[in-house]
Write a structure and sequence with these properties.
Blueprint (H helix, E strand, L loop, with lengths): L5 E8 L5 E9 L5 E8 L8 H7 L3 H4 L5 H12 L3 E4 L2 H13 L10 E3 H8 L8 H7 L11 H20 L3 H14 L1 H9 L12 E4 L2 E4 L13 E5 L3 H7 L9 E3 L11 H8 L6 H13 L15 H11 L8 H11 L3 E5 L3 H5 L8 E4 L2 H11 L1 E5 H15 L2 H23 L2 H23 L6 H15 L4 E5 L8 E6 L1 H14 L2 E3 H4 L2 H6 L1 H4 L26
Parallel strand pairs: 1-4, 4-5, 8-10, 8-11, 9-10, 11-15
Antiparallel strand pairs: 1-2, 2-3, 6-7, 12-14, 13-14
Length: 559
């Protein structure tokens, strides 16, 4: 990497992937600009109105421009020996490669860097990784409208420089851990991160805590002084949005957001991960740990809700969080202290059980949005979810380690079983289901019997099959479904826990201090704020009591 320069590239294309604009900025090893170009090309067909509105490029503007063919070799010579950098590099490289190939040019860059991936790793709390959104979050300077290659390539250069700055602002102990994970995750990003960690920024350690050989952000808070009268609002929308639409911060009273303990990162998370999830180490595990180590140095709350994670990382974190409640948790204690000094506590329904069971909050008034929502949420909280993908991972890991042919056979039988259930799910064939259910049950019982004979313990597989068997025998136990209709690996089981549901309902109503939003909120003021909760226009006859149902897909089953 030290002998190479960078070509930062952005392109605009038609719906047929013809390049109509390409902007290139070449950088030296210190990320200083060497040269830059911005070319427009006339495509074979006129631009659509959609593309013109998106990019600002018009057909009149391209009328006298050359074709890509005329400048292809010049562009190639400008970037051929450099490291290709794009915001979404795989897509842009694919388009460049195809357009070059049409002119007889074989384009294979020395290395490729994706600023999307780099930004996700080193800025894990951004709400969006679109270039325009990143520019606004990180205060990059846009010299024009987004979706113009000349503007976007300049933003990408600024972003690359921000990433380098961020790499140098990470404490050494944290970076050593990050580097060890990067080597397993992505060699190119490892090379880039190591090479550009040259000008380390001195961070005040007085703002940090050194625990388990990692630096965590310190949080200041008042000593615990519990106020006598406090209201706890249970929200089905984002807590900050709930606070805003109910105008809670406009009062002189303090407001705090409190989640259950498992939502706050413990100091020994890294050791827990290595101990509990070592079996499932993969790219999503590595990227998750990298993001966590970057984040703990700058977090404001220690609450995982600050993070923006990919779906696979989210599932891995969900698996990890099961082990957090047993740990002494610094960030949870800080959040609880703040809550006990506040007049209002806002939380979401995911935390209902832990909030109800918290002795410090026993005398507080619980404010629920709506009886229907409360009922739905209680039922949801009393369902455990099992994921078929965890079975797939467990079986693959065991097969790769043991080469056990019996496990291979079990894996094939389970795959066939899930595919068959998926086909029936797609076609909604109740007749086919009723005819086949006895055979399916026999197959599952046989598989469970075979698992019991193995020397290898397959916990997730055994648990999944036993619960699927119970569901098929008794529909009151739960149900199965597919999160993605076209993907049988997306199968999940939702298992009902009637005993837990009764206990939770009893706990809610035995408290006695219960209110609902319609009892305490001025409906006229609420009507004025309706647009904050919905992007749709205000509906005069709308039943405001059920306003939240239309803000979350969780409640579509009610209607």
């Amino acid at each position: 990497m030290q002998d190479k320069f960078f070509s930062v590239v952005d392109i605009e294309v038609t719906e047929k992937k013809e390049i109509v604009q390409i902007a290139i900025i070449n950088l030296d090893k210190k990320l200083n600009i060497l040269d830059k170009v911005n070319y427009y090309f006339k495509p074979n067909k006129e631009l659509s109105s959609f593309l013109t509105n998106l990019t600002g490029i018009t057909n009149e503007q391209l009328e006298d421009k050359p074709s890509f063919r005329e400048l292809a070799h010049e562009i190639y010579n400008m970037i051929k020996n450099n490291i290709l950098v794009c915001h979404g590099v795989i897509q842009d490289y694919s388009i460049l490669k195809k357009n070059f190939a049409k002119e007889g040019i074989s384009y294979n860059p020395f290395l490729m860097l994706d600023t999307v991936e780099l930004t996700k790793l080193y800025f894990p709390t951004l709400s969006s990784y679109k270039l325009g959104d990143i520019a606004e979050s990180l205060e990059l300077i846009a010299l024009g409208n987004y979706h113009n290659a000349a503007v976007d390539v300049d933003l990408t250069v600024q972003l690359l420089q921000k990433i380098v700055y961020k790499i140098n602002s990470i404490q050494e102990k944290n970076f050593i851990k990050i580097k060890s994970l990067l080597k397993k995750y992505n060699k190119t990003i490892t090379m880039f991160s190591e090479y550009y960690r040259l000008n380390r920024i001195q961070i005040k350690t007085s703002n940090l805590l050194l625990r388990n050989n990692l630096y965590f952000r310190k949080i200041e808070s008042n000593d615990r002084v519990s106020k006598a009268s406090r209201q706890i609002f249970l929200s089905s929308i984002d807590e900050d949005q709930f606070i805003k639409c109910n105008n809670l911060r406009s009062t002189d009273k303090t407001v705090a957001i409190l989640h259950s303990q498992e939502n706050y990162i413990p100091f020994n998370f890294f050791n827990i991960f290595k101990k509990k999830l070592a079996l499932f180490e993969n790219n999503s595990s590595y990227s998750l740990l990298i993001k966590l180590i970057v984040w703990i140095q700058e977090t404001k709350t220690g609450n995982f809700n600050e993070l923006t994670l990919d779906l696979s990382e989210f599932y891995r974190l969900t698996e990890l969080k099961k082990y957090f409640n047993k740990e002494v948790n610094y960030y949870y204690e800080k959040a609880l202290n703040k809550s006990l000094n506040s007049d209002y506590i806002i939380t979401n329904y995911n935390n209902l059980t832990s909030i109800l069971m918290n002795d410090y909050l026993n005398n507080d008034t619980f404010v629920y949005e709506d009886k229907n929502i409360l009922g739905v949420q209680v039922k949801r909280l009393c369902k455990s979810i099992l994921y078929y993908r965890d079975v797939v991972i467990e079986l693959n890991v065991v097969i790769n380690k043991t080469r056990n042919n019996v496990v291979v056979g079990i894996q094939k039988n389970i795959e066939d079983l899930v595919k068959y259930l998926h086909e029936m799910y797609i076609f909604e064939s109740l007749e086919l289901y009723n005819e086949a259910i006895e055979f399916i049950i026999n197959d599952i019982e046989y598989l469970i019997s075979e698992l019991s004979k193995l020397n290898v313990i397959l916990i997730k597989t055994n648990n999944f099959l036993n619960n699927l068997l119970n569901i098929l025998k008794d529909k009151t136990k739960g149900y199965y479904r597919f999160e993605s209709i076209h993907n049988n690996i997306s199968m999940i089981l939702k298992i009902k826990d009637s005993k837990k549901e009764k206990l939770l309902i009893n706990k809610i109503y035995s408290n006695g201090n219960i209110k609902f939003l319609e009892d305490i909120i001025n409906i006229d003021n609420f009507r004025k704020k309706f647009q904050i909760l919905s992007n749709d226009s205000i509906v005069p006859d709308f039943n405001l009591k059920k306003i939240y149902l239309f803000n979350s897909s969780n409640y579509k089953e009610l209607y």
